[in-house]
Amino acid sequence: MSIKIGILGYGNLGRGVEAAVKKNDDMVLKAVYTRRSPDSVKIRTDGVEVKTVSELEKGNEDIDVLVICGGSATDLPEMTPKFASLYNVIDSFDTHARVPEHFKNVDTAAKSNGKTGIISCGWDPGMFSLNRLYATSILPDGKDYTFWGRGVSQGHSDAVRRIDGVKDCRQYTIPVPEALEKVRNGENPELTTRQKHTRECFVVAEEGADKARIENEIKTMPNYFADYDTVVHFISEEEMKRDHSTLPHGGSVIYSGETSDGVNHVIEYSLKLDSNPEFTGSVIIAFARAVYRLNREGNFGAKTVFDIAPAYISPLSGDEIRSHIL
Amino acid sequence: MSIKIGILGYGNLGRGVEAAVKKNDDMVLKAVYTRRSPDSVKIRTDGVEVKTVSELEKGNEDIDVLVICGGSATDLPEMTPKFASLYNVIDSFDTHARVPEHFKNVDTAAKSNGKTGIISCGWDPGMFSLNRLYATSILPDGKDYTFWGRGVSQGHSDAVRRIDGVKDCRQYTIPVPEALEKVRNGENPELTTRQKHTRECFVVAEEGADKARIENEIKTMPNYFADYDTVVHFISEEEMKRDHSTLPHGGSVIYSGETSDGVNHVIEYSLKLDSNPEFTGSVIIAFARAVYRLNREGNFGAKTVFDIAPAYISPLSGDEIRSHIL
Question: ipTM greater than 0.90, yes or no?
Answer without folding.
Answer: yes
